Amino acid sequence: MSRIYGDQRMPRIPSRPDKVRVPLWMLLLAVAGKGLVLGVRWCWRHRIAVPAGLGVLVFVHRFGLPGLVGLLVGMVLVAVLWRRVHPLSFGWLARWVWGRVRLTVVYRRRWRAAMVHTDLAIRVPTSNADQVTFDDYYPRIRAIRSTRAVDVLRVELLPGQTPEQWAEQAEALRHVFRARRCQVHAEAHRFVRLHFHHRDTLVRPVTPGDLDGSRPGGADPDHGAASGVLVAELGAVPVGRCEDGSPWTLPIRGTHLLVAGATGAGKGSVLWAIIRGLGPAVRAGLVELWVCDPKGGMELAFGEPLFARFATTTGEIADLLDDAVAVMQRRTARLRGRTRLHTPTVGDPLIVVVVDEIASLTAYVTDREVKKRIGAALPLLLSQGRAPGVVVLAAVQDPRKEVLPFRDLFPVRVALRMTETDQADLVLGSGARDRGARAEEIPLSLPGVGYVLAEGQPEPVRVRAAHIDDTEISRTVWAYRPVSAAGGGWTPDLDAYADDVPADGGDPTGWGEVA
What sequence ranges are listed for the domain FtsK (predicted)? Predict the structure, then answer.
């Protein structure tokens, strides 16, 4: 038959299905090649476990199970000896092995499901003539570093992802991997670091460390090398311990510090830890403590022999702050054009103005004239005092702007336990809580635990201040009182203690020396 198209007759072409005959050997070769590629990829992903497993199998085949037991016993003995001889290298190897174990057992097993359900995987549609399929792309773990308390995963971002997306899913990831806390730290580009904290290292109180044992010249403040070290240490005063086990230090020289926390959160622990850390410099005459305690001296009067000036009433505090402003202005005029940062000396020490409960001076003073003087002096010190060496260390319970209007002038801030969810952002800056600073979740049983954020530091760090009890305060006062003028320092006015001087010529402060 034929069909008519216009005036022409076209022959009908019978339709035949297109069939391509593929030889069986080509199908087998394709399957074998695909299996080989997948096998090589799997071996590369487990490039440590595969050789180790093969080595164990060969060893068992050659020496049997008794030989394997002997090998394990020998490895244990070598590890014990290695740890005693060189603990630093052994610790590095142990952390590396533990990290590989955690990566295999915990993270790789749940990684793909976690990425899909948190929308951190990317699905790309592909289509042919018949149907649409999706290819899934997952962020890849590039490195892991583990300790007993925290696992740090270095993850490569997929195209189009931002660290903020990961930060929003931090709580979900915490639950997936059964961690206590998850923090997301962004690198400069392309990578994020996931910190999974699975053990709280700050549960036990922190014992204050030795301040003089490792310093050149020991406890002798006249030693030249020791004086240089003391000045350098003013940029890193020991306070306590960080969550990763490293020492927690705070800069005092060239900055101002704000400590915020609810009642019983441990603000006194932080203040006393800093005062204790400044003790060697106070004894050497390189630091003067000008202390304001609006509570009538209930918190800081224990350390009065350490202080160059001590004020408890609002009138005395206003005079102290006015004098600090005057010193600051004189130094500024003298150092202008010569240096940009004051260097403490015995004759020209760093002045640290300590204010406990600064809100009592900014919001709760009833005398208008005194409140006006304080309101004028504090902003001047905070805005101009860092370079000439007059710095402010303040504590506050309520960090709201109407209570502390110039809190943004403190470059270094510590947020202890808070009562409201938004107070961590008020102290540490916007977004601090989303980056892990959940200060309202700190339990009452952990005073001194908080988060610190220094100037230029991208992420808040969880810390705990050392526990300074009355005995340690007494020992600090007796050990680090300023030396006499003949020794290159100064001596506080002890006339107030004249009536209390014992007949045997003992300690006039009444503190006594604590071994």
Answer: 245-425
487 annotated ligand-binding residue = no
Number of alpha helices (DSSP H) and beta strands (DSSP E) in the chain: 14, 18
Tell me: is residue 217 an annotated ligand-binding position: no
Following DSSP, what letter does each residue of 242-271 receive, concatenated? ETTSSEEEE--TT--EEEE--TTSSHHHHH
> Could you tell me which residues are beta bridge partners of residue 354?
291, 393
Residue closest to 259 by CA, chosen among 471, 433, 463: 463
Q: Partners of 289 in the beta sheet?
A: 352
Residue 166 identity (one-letter amino acid) = W
The whole-angstrom separation of Cα 158 and Cα 399 is 39
Contact between residue 145 and residue 99 where contact means Cβ atoms under 8 Å apart: yes
The answer to whether the beta carbons of residues 294 and 361 sit under 8 Å apart is: yes
> Residues 202, 464: contact at Cβ < 8 Å?
yes
- Over its length of 515 residues, how does the chain's per-residue pLDDT go in tens digits? 445 555 555 555 555 555 667 788 888 888 888 888 888 887 877 777 778 788 878 877 788 888 888 888 888 888 888 888 888 888 888 888 888 889 988 998 899 999 999 989 987 777 665 666 667 788 999 999 988 888 999 999 998 899 889 988 988 999 999 998 888 888 888 899 999 988 888 888 888 877 765 444 444 444 454 566 677 788 889 999 998 888 899 999 989 999 999 988 889 889 999 999 998 899 888 999 999 988 887 888 888 889 999 998 888 999 999 999 999 999 999 988 888 898 898 888 999 999 988 888 877 777 888 888 988 999 999 999 999 999 999 998 888 877 788 888 899 999 999 988 888 888 888 888 877 788 888 988 889 999 998 766 778 889 999 988 888 888 888 888 886 433 333 344 434 333 433 344 344 333 333 32
Q: 248 to each of 192, 243, 461, how far by Cα in Å?
A: 24, 9, 10
Q: Report whether 32 belongs to an annotated binding site.
A: no
371 among the known binding-site residues? no
Q: Is 3.40.30.10 the CATH number for 224-496?
A: no
The answer on whether 64 is annotated among ligand-binding residues is no
- Is residue 401 marked as binding? no
Let me know: does 284 contact 258? Beta carbons within 8 Å: no
**Domain limits, the chain:** 41-81, 86-199, 224-496
Say how far apart CA 147 and CA 132 lie, in whole Å. Answer: 45
Which two structure tokens, joined as six digits, stand for 254? 């060239």
What is the four-CA torsion angle of 425, 430, 432, 433, rounded to 10 degrees? 60
Is 94 annotated as ligand-binding?
no
Residue type for 11, please?
P
How many C-beta atoms lie closer than 10 Å to residue 356's C-beta? 22
Q: Which residues pair with 126 in a beta bridge?
A: 133
